[in-house]
Amino acid sequence: MKTIFTAVQAFVADEDGVTAIEYGLIAALIGVAMAGAATLLGDQIELTFNNVKDKLVTALKP
Question: Which UniProt keywords apply (predicted)?
């Protein structure tokens, strides 16, 4: 019984799992931020490429 109690105490005192969870949450937060930035910038980038395309089409017309 003493070895089980010692094992449980060691498991509770071990902080490696907590650190991994924290890193996982940080990575998830960064992923959400990147997705949000891509959504916001996506429309602007599309407008820029369409503007360049339109100017090229206009410049290439005889």
Answer: Membrane, Transmembrane, Transmembrane helix
